[in-house]
Structure formats: C-alpha cells, structure tokens
Specification:
109 residues; mainly beta; N-terminal domain of TfIIb; 4-stranded antiparallel beta sheet; 3-stranded antiparallel beta sheet; 1 helix; 7 strands; Znf_TFIIS
Length: 109
C-alpha cells in the first residue's frame, strides 16, 4: 500500500504509465522495482452477501492484533480488519483471524 504524501489517500497503481496515482488529488509517483517486488497481484472481485466471509490476501503481520478468544482453538489473540460488507448506511463488519490456527470469523457491530 502506498499513501499520497499530499492528501493521505490510498494510491492506486497505473501499470500502463508505471506510476502510483492518487484518485483524490491526481498526484503521481513512479513505481519502483522494490514496489514491484513487494506487490501481490489481486483481481477485483464483486462480493455478494450470500457468499460468506471475505478473506483478505495480505501479509497478516501488518494487521493490528487484539485480545479476543478464537471460537475454534481458544487462543486469545487475533489479527483484525474492518470492511463495509453491507449498505453504506449500515455499520461495517469486523473480521478476525486467529494468530495460532488461522481461523477467520466476523463480528457485526
């Protein structure tokens, strides 16, 4: 992930121009060889509510952790992330991934 140094918005890669582009203010920055080496290619996927849990494919070591009991193994620490999985006027969903067994579950706020 790369954030715009001008406005703080998450920047997106433009592979045709080989630059990072800020969708908010238009700032551009070259994509470095280091960026390419660390990148994981993902596809944009539309999620339907009946398709189950969304699993974020990223290095979980970068996610924050919290004290919560895993319903599968009883471990007391899990990584967490938040996503808007329902309508914009409804609260977001918090996902947890156990640091011990890798089980993923969600909590609706």
């Amino acid at each position: 992930m790369k954030f715009c140094p001008k406005c703080g918005t998450l920047m997106r890669p433009d592979r045709k121009k080989n630059v990072w582009v800020c969708p908010n203010c238009g700032y551009e920055e070259p994509i470095t060889d280091e960026d390419k080496k660390n990148a994981k290619i993902t596809q944009k996927v539309e999620h339907k509510p009946d398709e189950g849990i969304i699993v974020v494919e990223q290095d979980v070591k970068t996610l924050p952790t919290t004290h919560v009991i895993c319903p599968k193994c009883g471990n007391d620490t899990a990584y967490w992330w938040e996503m808007q999985t329902r309508a914009g006027d409804e609260p977001s969903t918090i996902f947890y991934k156990c640091t011990k067994c890798g089980y993923v579950w969600r909590a609706y706020e």
